[in-house]
Amino acid sequence: MVNPDLILKYFPNISELQLEQFAELYDLYSFWNAQINVISRKDIDELYERHILHSLGIAKFCTFKPGEKVLDVGTGGGFPGIPLAILFPETYFHLVDSIGKKIKVVTEVAASLGLTNVKASHLRAEQVNEKYNFVVSRAVTRLVDFYPWIRGKFAKEHINAIPNGILYLKGGDLTEEIKESKLKAELHPLSAYFEEDFFETKFVVYIPQ
Ligand SMILES: C[S@@+](CC[C@H](N)C(=O)[O-])C[C@H]1O[C@@H](n2cnc3c(N)ncnc32)[C@H](O)[C@@H]1O
């Protein structure tokens, strides 16, 4: 499916503007992915399911509030940060990646969409020195390595009914990875929200702080 109908299926209350922004992502990523590979080339036709809806899985578990700050670590071309920033225009999103070319794509995509709630920085997660309510991520590294990068970066104040914490999109059997990290993690299966086969083995891993 190369149009945003799939997004409307699961988020029927989005505005005309948000629908237009989701619709624009196909052309934007087709263009930028041809210059700088940010998603696998064969995945471009699966953009709405495997990248945009997958990113929005976080939103099915946690509705971000106006004024909250969210850090996306290792955002690559902007996942999950860009789809979430479209869905939550009053939440501030800081998207960081250690590869400058990828941040160029994110900056261009956010500017083309007119998103004013996104800042993209060419930084390693370890170098970030702001405080956030939530840290989101997908496909960066194992929790045992990830956690030390971001453990000191949470704001003390909570705005959300869901306490500040990590919301990591992961798939497969996570038992070993969670055990190795020694973190207290909750697994929220995306198959509870989305019926497509792709989500059968996918989770939002929530680690409260
Ligand atoms: C497999 S890509 C995933 C990109 C995106 N999150 C997605 O799901 O499409 C992993 C990304 O993490 C970035 N990365 C790895 N270690 C990082 C670190 N310490 N700080 C910031 N970015 C990092 C890499 O540059 C790469 O762009």
CA distance, first residue to last residue: 37 Å
Counting DSSP H or I runs of 4 or more residues, the number of helices is 7
Domain module count: 1
The coarse silhouette is globular
Mean pLDDT: 97
What is the CATH level 1 assignment?
A: Alpha Beta
- Biggest sheet features: 7 strands, mixed
Please, what is the CATH homologous superfamily? Answer: Vaccinia Virus protein VP39
Ligand inventory reads:
S-adenosylmethionine
Derived structural class = alpha/beta
In the predicted model, the low-confidence regions spanning at least 5 consecutive residues are: none
Radius of gyration: 16 Å
CATH topology: Rossmann fold
- CATH architecture identity: 3-Layer(aba) Sandwich
Using DSSP, what is the number of strands?
Answer: 7
Strand order of the largest sheet: 3-2-1-4-5-7-6
Short characterization:
By secondary structure, the protein is α/β, with parallel strands linked by helices. The protein has seven helices and seven strands. It has one domain (5-208): Vaccinia Virus protein VP39 (Rossmann fold).
Give structural notes.
The chain is of the alpha/beta class and 209 residues long. The chain has a single domain (5-208), classed as 3-Layer(aba) Sandwich (Rossmann fold), CATH 3.40.50. Helices cover 37% and strands 19% of the residues. The chain is built from 7 helices and 7 strands; from the N terminus they run αααβαβαββαβαββ. The protein has helices at residues 5-10, 16-35, 47-61, 81-87, 100-113, 143-150, 175-181; strands at 69-73, 92-97, 118-122, 134-138, 165-171, 186-189, 202-208. Helix 2 (16-35) packs antiparallel against helix 5, helix 3 crosses helix 4 (81-87) and helix 6 (143-150) crosses helix 7 (175-181). The chain is globular and about 40 Å long. It starts with a helix and ends with a strand. The model has no long low-confidence stretch (mean pLDDT 97). The protein binds S-adenosylmethionine. The site of S-adenosylmethionine has 17 residues, from strand 2. S-adenosylmethionine binds next to strand 2. Belongs to the methyltransferase superfamily. RNA methyltransferase RsmG family.
